[in-house]
Predict the structure of Large ribosomal subunit protein uL1.
Amino acid sequence: MPKLSKRIKAALEKVDQDRAYEPLEALTLLKETATAKFNESAEAHIRLGIDPKYTDQQLRTTVSLPKGTGQEIRVAVIARGEKVQEASNAGADIVGSEELIDEIQKGMMDFEVLIATPDMMPKVAKLGRLLGPRGLMPSPKGGTVTADLETAINEFKAGKLEFRADRTGIVHVMFGKASFSPEDLLANLKALQETIDRQRPSGAKGRYWRSVFVSASMGPSIQIDISALRDLKLEGQV
């Protein structure tokens, strides 16, 4: 086993691995254990009772984080004609047509979100092998294949994220930064939980939620009490 650093040892000592924490307590602890020399991401790892090899048990959707992601999101758009100017006017960082597809094929990946207009998708299809494993392939379900470029660009810049369950049924999502207040992290995590419940696949059988862990990107995992998170009502919610 690799030797643990003093920093990691100290962080681990703060977390009771046999306990499921109340959501706000867990997020306060996440901040305390984020002791790296940079602003770590807050990550959620959610195991669901689904088997994504079946099409009716797949989960791929988007969530709008009310407190944002805490990072600048670079948006690239593949479009043609007047839609190119529309994307530029809406604040896209990179815009192009066939030439942008060629650049991406050559390895240009200087973006976090790629949006395409429906008419460009037959050409974008050849990027599937390259973009698919990175979770960057445009899809209607993910809100990244659309003719309404202005709305899509604004939403992703403001904190909209696409996420999916991996092949083992686990959702991995970055839902803010360790510098956020525990309350802001909780608002984002609650939005994520509600989205996952709303988008429950039709083929999901039995217990849907299996476990929820949060952590700073360089910190230990902290288990959250699933019922406490799902039952929680934040201010402004009915």
